[in-house]
């Protein structure tokens, strides 16, 4: 690499370059808020926490970060056991003389960043670290010292999917070099909400390129920009997608929690495979402004966390209306519900929970998954739920054979991607539509074409139907029937259900069609003796891979679903029972 200074984050194949000729002991502060100039530097190494410690850190009951909750972390911050700076602190040492031309600067990282460095060369969950993280953490610590707390997540580090644009020094690429270096005029609305709530956006997560909407022969979690994400339970585990890195980062405690996006399964499926909670909100509950789109009808942004309560905390922050996303105007309440308060251990009592058995029969599930699913139903029944069997999705067989759901995505992408590209303030490769995106991808070496094809784009362009075409509306009405009367909403109405449940890997398809919510919770694990299957080099099924259960509900029913999922989680505590083949060892206590 060339340039006056190369700032090399030792995160496997992940590098962030900062071209700035600071002194040996200095490095530029790069501010996400634009408050520091490029000529300003700060000396790193030996920084003192801005908050005087109230007690001896060694006397604190500091949780292991792989299971730490927001409440536990806030308790430690409040007591002065550690600071937000401790969670993201970075110390820089020069390894090679500057004048040799190729300067290597090693980052000696602490806590969350150190945890990323421990495992990222294997799992590739994080594509880059925010060079502003320390600056923002110091600001949050100073505010805490002055008695100003922005909310219950104040000062906690978070990692967000790399298709969510931020107006800072980090890249937002959707995993592609086609928009590497692209800029928007502001943060994505959800990123702004995170900052306003006091969270430290610490980095970006790897994901399936273009949210799994490029290839038919690629693998979950692969992108040209970030490489191949893998999950942590067996070697070369398929992480599912497309929010692959967000799932793995949350699972391994590489941040307090993460954000993902979903069009059809892209939050709940990777959450399932990484043994965490994934909450796909109703389309319109969270803004998609400056989030790389596929479909305006199906795209949504949601939390991925190690517990239901932490997912609820995060949803509380990012939910709400946004004049820049007209789908949010459909939110039916003036005040966002208290999602954290919905976490009630008795929430299952008296609730009618439906089981659409025809989905399991038509799509098929291994018997071990069905057995564990039935055991989960027994847990709910014991907790007071009324289990209603055979609440079938009546149009599911027709849906399973229909090309229409994909055709809707093709039409939306032909319309929504050009609209997004038009919003870019900086567009280095002049990507204006799906055709120019395909052309770039097929001619750029790092995009690995044709070994990873562009079949989804090829089909969309060949069909040539946009969502403004007269042919689109009849297709869309059929799609709505699959999801509404013939799907989840019809089942809820006919059987007077509070929710329906399925093994998570079967849950996303129908709710995707009408934008209804899902929350997945850890349920179990594939046992010894499970047949090992592969997709290219990735293991898609085998002993030790997690299994989740998905709670599906009506539009805007997140409050109810969170309660049901929380009660199930507290009755089962399935997550801590599983073993990983890799996990970081760095802890807060070890760096104080």
What would your notes on this structure say?
It is a single chain. By secondary structure, the protein is of the alpha/beta class. The protein has a domain at 6-316 and 582-591: Amidase signature (AS) enzymes (Alpha-Beta Complex). Helix content is 31%, strand content 15%. The strands form five sheets. Strands 6-8-7-11-13-12-17-20-16-14-15 form an eleven-stranded mixed sheet, with helices on both faces. A three-stranded mixed sheet has the order 1-5-4.
In short:
This protein is an alpha/beta fold and 592 residues long. The protein is 31% helix and 15% strand.
**Biggest sheet record:** 11 strands, mixed
Structural classification:
alpha/beta
What overall form do the CA principal axes indicate? globular
How many individual β-strands? 20
Strand order of the biggest β-sheet: 6-8-7-11-13-12-17-20-16-14-15
Helical segment count: 19
Strand content: 15-25%
Q: What fold name stands as the CATH topology of the domain at 6-316 and 582-591? A: Amidase signature (AS) enzymes
In angstroms, what separates the terminal alpha carbons? Answer: 34 Å
Mean pLDDT: 89
Radius of gyration: 23 Å
Low-confidence stretches: 1-54, 91-109
Architecture of the domain at 6-316 and 582-591, according to CATH? Alpha-Beta Complex
Helical amount: 25-40%
* CATH C-level category of the domain at 6-316 and 582-591: Alpha Beta
Superfamily (CATH H level) name of the domain at 6-316 and 582-591? Amidase signature (AS) domain
């Amino acid at each position: 690499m060339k340039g006056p200074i190369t700032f090399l984050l030792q995160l496997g194949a992940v590098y962030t370059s900062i071209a700035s000729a600071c002194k040996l002991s200095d490095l530029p502060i790069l501010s996400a808020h634009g408050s520091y100039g490029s000529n300003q530097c700060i000396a790193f190494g030996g920084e003192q926490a801005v908050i005087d410690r109230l007690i001896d850190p060694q006397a604190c009951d500091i949780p292991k970060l792989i299971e730490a909750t927001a409440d536990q972390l806030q308790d430690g911050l409040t007591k002065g056991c550690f600071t937000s700076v401790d969670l993201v602190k970075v110390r820089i040492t020069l390894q090679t003389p500057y004048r040799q031309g190729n300067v290597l600067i090693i980052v000696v990282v602490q806590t969350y960043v150190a945890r990323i460095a421990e495992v990222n060369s294997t799992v590739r969950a994080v594509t880059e670290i925010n060079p502003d993280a320390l600056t923002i953490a110091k600001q949050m610590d100073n505010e805490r010292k002055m008695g100003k707390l922005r909310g219950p997540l104040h000062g906690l580090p978070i990692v967000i999917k790399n298709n969510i644009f931020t107006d800072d020094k980090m890249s937002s690429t959707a995993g592609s070099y086609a928009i590497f270096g692209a800029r928007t005029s502001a943060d994505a609305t959800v990123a702004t909400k995170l900052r306003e709530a006091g969270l430290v956006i610490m980095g970006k997560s790897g994901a399936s390129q273009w949210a799994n909407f490029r290839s038919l022969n690629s693998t979950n979690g692969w992108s040209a920009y970030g490489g191949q994400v893998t999950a942590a339970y067996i070697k070369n585990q398929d992480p599912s997608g497309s929010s692959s890195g967000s799932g793995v980062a949350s699972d391994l405690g590489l941040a307090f929690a993460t954000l993902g996006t979903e069009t059809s399964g892209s939050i709940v499926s990777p959450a399932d495979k990484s043994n965490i909670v994934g909450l796909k909100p109703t389309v319109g509950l969270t803004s998609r402004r400056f989030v790389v789109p596929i479909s305006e009808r199906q795209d949504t942004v949601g939390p991925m966390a190690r517990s239901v309560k932490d997912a609820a905390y995060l949803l509380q922050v990012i939910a709400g209306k946004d004049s820049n996303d007209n789908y949010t105007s459909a939110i039916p309440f003036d005040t966002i519900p208290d999602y954290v308060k919905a976490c009630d251990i008795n929430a299952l009592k008296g609730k009618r929970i439906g089981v659409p058995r025809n989905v399991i029969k038509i799509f098929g599930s291994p018997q071990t998954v069905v057995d564990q699913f039935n055991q989960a139903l027994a847990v709910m029944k014991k907790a007071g739920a009324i289990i209603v069997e055979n609440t079938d999705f009546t149009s599911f067989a027709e849906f399973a054979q229909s090309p229409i759901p994909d055709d809707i995505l093709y039409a939306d992408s032909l319309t929504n991607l050009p609209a997004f590209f038009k919003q870019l303030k900086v567009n280095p490769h002049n990507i204006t539509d799906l055709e120019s995106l395909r052309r770039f991808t097929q001619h750029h070496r790092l995009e690995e074409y044709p070994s990873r094809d562009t079949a989804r784009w090829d089909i969309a362009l060949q069909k040539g139907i946009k969502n403004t075409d007269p042919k689109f509306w009849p297709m869309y009405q059929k799609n709505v029937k699959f999801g509404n009367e013939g799907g989840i909403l019809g089942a809820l109405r006919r059987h007077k259900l509070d929710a329906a449940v399925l093994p998570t890997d079967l849950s996303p398809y129908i709710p995707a069609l009408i934008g209804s919510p899902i929350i997945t919770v850890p349920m179990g694990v594939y046992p010894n003796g499970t047949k090992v299957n592969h997709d290219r080099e990735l293991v898609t099924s085998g002993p030790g891979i997690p299994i989740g259960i998905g709670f599906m509900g009506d539009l805007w029913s997140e409050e109810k679903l969170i309660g049901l999922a929380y009660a199930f989680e507290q009755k089962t505590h399935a997550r801590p029972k599983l073993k990983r083949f890799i996990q970081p060892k760095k802890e807060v206590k070890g760096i104080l």
